[in-house]
Specification:
- With about 425 residues, this protein is an alpha/beta fold.
- The chain is about 25% helix and about 20% strand.
- It is built from eleven helices and 16 strands.
- It has helices at about 5, 55-65, 65-70, 125-135, 170, 175-190, 210-220, 300-320, 325-330, 355-365, 405-410, and strands spanning about 10, 35-40, 85-90, 105-110, 135-140, 145, 155-160, 195-200, 200-205, 225-230, 255-260, 275-280, 285-290, 295-300, 390, 400.
- A hairpin with a 3-residue loop joins strand 5 (about 135-140) and strand 6 (about 145).
- Helix 4 (about 125-135) packs across helix 8 (about 300-320), helix 8 (about 300-320) runs parallel beside helix 10 and helix 9 packs across helix 10 (about 355-365).
- It is globular, with a radius of gyration of 20 Å.
């Protein structure tokens, strides 16, 4: 069991020490990668020769087909490939020199407070996987990983070290306020540098007023923010009403929370079920490129979040003025694999369909504006699955019931920022 201080820690879900082995599987809590395995072949990194024949990298592209097919991505590319959009990957850092990302990554600040250099093999493991899923462009005319938005740019902002980092123990001993401030700084930096999408495959067990304010600022500036829902599905029953515990930032208002499904469209056993979940995407054995140039099969709600962030980038590239709430509407109203009744706490409104979401975004971009509920009304509110009729608010990234004076008073109740909601993991 973790110490009280440790339970409040931001949990990055990667284990970079295992990246040194040819095959690894491991369990990690909360939001990120819960399992991975090395795939055959190593791609060419800057200044290096490929270890294997190009056919190995071609096989990686083949192994991606089910992922891109489930999200209906390739049919969307004639309309948008994410050009002109910057996606901030707030994570453990991104290696800008791997073959499938070279030329597409801007390296931002390191807010972790640890001194591990970017040349370390234990730096940027998890973040590089995520970036490749968002904006990987492959290499060599058809080899390697192709991201959902291959013409988007990545802004890498490091807010947490990988678990294999030699200084991870020092990071764990940092004060709660410092840990939360690092995330808030990362969000504010992303907004200041013009990111249109923020992807966070990380999780806290408690909310923070500082982070909440930074997210509000991002929302007000038109930035689409996504986070992984969490990997506590196998621990169901520890949260409210038998659902998995809340995970932040996924549970903050205005953040699009993403669950994970397998290749059949069934919810992944590890994917957290709670009312923050709005959509789902592939999250089981998803091919990605690592900071070492190798290809890995990653599982967790982390890759699911990154993939949906790529779809958001496609939308913002084509319709840059579309508000975050309308981007969320485009994503949630056009899904496939929709659950009975239209919504459940495992997959939200269903699996994202990139092509259909772009079509819906076009309609929303040209629709007359509708009255909006003030953004502060969303504090702590998720999806009300019990409502007979859902009203998708144009200012929100989730659905709300009709607002009455009574419900508005409840919605205006601020989060308790002093009480740490923590679970042993």
């Amino acid at each position: 069991m973790l110490s009280p201080n440790g339970r409040r820690r931001l949990t990055l879900l990667a284990a970079s020490l295992l990246a040194k082995f040819g095959l690894a599987a491991f369990g990690l809590a909360a939001c990120g990668v819960i399992a991975l395995a090395a795939l055959p072949g190593t791609a060419r990194a800057a200044g290096q020769r490929p270890v294997s024949a190009s056919a190995a990298a071609d096989a990686i592209r083949d192994s991606q087909e089910w992922v891109l097919g489930m999200l209906n991505v390739t049919a969307a590319w004639p309309r948008s490939e994410g050009a002109g959009v910057t996606v901030a990957v707030i994570d453990s850092g991104v290696n800008p020199y791997v073959s499938d990302l070279i030329g597409s990554v801007t390296t931002g600040p390191d807010y972790t407070g640890v001194t591990t250099g970017s040349a370390s093999p234990d730096w940027g493991v998890h973040g590089t996987w995520m970036a490749s899923l968002i904006a990987g462009h492959g290499h060599g005319g058809g080899s390697g990983v192709i991201g959902v938005a291959p013409r988007a740019r990545i802004l890498s902002i490091r807010v947490i070290p990988d678990r294999g980092d030699p200084h991870y123990g020092r990071y764990e001993r940092e004060q709660e306020a410092s840990i939360q401030q690092s995330l808030a700084n990362g969000i504010n930096y992303a907004v200041a540098r013009g990111a249109q999408v923020i992807s966070m495959s990380i999780g806290y067990s408690a909310p923070s007023g500082t982070v909440r304010a930074a997210l509000q600022h991002a929302y007000d500036r038109g930035v689409v923010v996504l986070a992984s829902a969490g990997n506590s599905g196998d621990q169901g029953g520890s949260g409210r009403d038998g659902d998995a515990p809340e995970s932040f930032p996924a549970d903050y208002p205005g953040v699009i929370s993403v669950g994970a499904v397998d290749s059949s469209g069934a919810v992944a056993s590890f994917s957290s079920a709670n009312l923050s979940v709005q959509v789902a995407a592939p999250g089981v054995s998803v091919p990605a490129q690592g900071r070492d140039g190798q290809y890995w099969s990653v599982s967790g709600t982390s890759p699911a979040c990154a993939l949906v962030a790529g779809v958001a980038a496609l939308i913002k590239s084509r319709y840059p003025g579309l508000a975050p709430g309308l981007v969320a509407t485009a994503l949630t109203t056009t899904t496939t694999y929709r659950p009975p009744g239209g919504y459940d706490s495992q997959v939200g409104f269903g699996v994202v369909d990139a092509t259909a979401a772009l079509t819906k975004a076009a309609q929303l971009a040209h629709a007359p504006p509708t009255p909006a509920i003030p953004a502060t009304l969303g504090a702590g509110i998720g999806v009300f699955a019990a409502c007979a009729t859902f009203t998708v608010c144009s200012r929100y990234s989730f659905s709300l019931p009709p607002v009455t004076k009574a419900t508005a008073a409840t919605m205006l109740t601020p989060l308790s920022l002093e009480t740490s909601r923590a679970w042993a993991i």
